[in-house]
Amino acid sequence: QGQLVESGGGVVQPGGSLRLSCAVSEYTFSRYGMHWVRQAPGKGLQWVAVISADGRNTYYTDPLKGRFTISRDNSKDTLFLHVSDLRDEDTAMYYCAKANSAYMYRIDSWGQGTLVIVSS
Amino acid sequence: DIEMTQSPSSLSASVGDTVTINCRASHSIASYLSWFQQKPGKAPKVLIYSASILQSGVPSRFSGSGSWPDFTLTISGLQFEDSATYYCQQTYSPPLTFGGGTKVQIK
């Protein structure tokens, strides 16, 4: 299924921004769509965004559109999530997840997550 | 957006019991539904996709059934290690919404 390792989380002040990364190994990154999913402390899973294998198509959950941007660098086997104008409610564990090869909307494996804390 | 309603929100059962978790979709998703298991402090794990197909490596006591609007995850012969929170997700159309989760506790 491959390895997915997130990084870039940390403590950030309200209004700040971060770039989260997800480094992938053990599979051909450029063949698969990729997702970001987040989970606020003690809460359920919230799907954030998906990007196609070639990076041309992206979809977002509406409330985050405009502040969150998913992108990828297939030459570096890395997925990104740029998050801006951060708010208290963006405090969460952020997971990257690999899509199925035949159907990009279906997740078939997950990273371990990177924690973002928005606090002054 | 497609709303996914899971029930119950929590349940308690004994080892060996059969447990069912339900998920209802507000709009048609055909059989584009996945089930995930999440243990505390861990990333989710895929159990079922396309409503009824068992992910490779997942024990056969887990099974999925149903088609729009109602889907079911069944655990036949509950084990201690099945204590977790379970989520459904529609994979039909973005935004790819999750259900609210069902926490399964072992008595």
Q: What percentage of the residues of chain B does DSSP assign to strands (E)?
A: over 45%
Please tally the helical runs of chain B, counting DSSP H or I stretches of 4 or more residues: 0
Number of strands of chain A: 11
- Which descriptor suits the 3D outline of chain B? globular
What's the main sheet of chain A like?
A: 7 strands, mixed
Rg of chain A, nearest Å: 13 Å
Class by SSE composition of chain B: mainly beta
Q: Which consecutive residue ranges of chain A, at least 5 long each, have pLDDT under 50?
A: none
- State the secondary-structure class of chain A: mainly beta
Q: What are the main properties of this structure?
A:
heterodimer; A: 120 residues; mainly beta; 7-stranded mixed beta sheet; 4-stranded antiparallel beta sheet; 0% helix; globular; B: 107 residues; 6-stranded mixed beta sheet; 10 strands
Task: Give an account of the 3D structure.
The complex is a heterodimer of chains A (120) and B (107). Chain A is mainly β and 120 residues long. Chain A contains no helices and eleven strands. Helix content of chain A is 0%, strand content 51%. In chain A, strands 2, 4, 5, 6, 9, 10 and 11 form a seven-stranded mixed beta sheet that branches. Chain A has a four-stranded antiparallel beta sheet with strand order 1-3-8-7, with no helix packed on it. The mean pLDDT of chain A is 96. The termini of chain B are far apart. In chain B, a hairpin with a 6-residue loop joins strand 4 and strand 5. Classes of the chains: A mainly beta (120), B mainly beta (107). Chain A binds chain B through residues 35, 37, 44-47, 50, 59-62, 95, 100, 103, 105-113, and chain B through 1, 32, 34, 36, 38, 42-46, 49-50, 55, 85, 87, 89, 91-101.
Helix/strand layout:
The complex is a heterodimer of chains A (120) and B (107).
Chain A: E1 3-7, E2 10-12, E3 18-25, E4 34-39, E5 45-51, E6 58-60, E7 68-73, E8 78-83, E9 92-99, E10 107-110, E11 114-118
Chain B: E1 4-7, E2 10-13, E3 18-25, E4 33-38, E5 45-49, E6 53-54, E7 62-67, E8 70-76, E9 84-90, E10 102-106
Parallel strand pairs in B: 2-10
Antiparallel strand pairs in B: 1-3, 3-8, 4-5, 4-9, 5-6, 7-8, 9-10
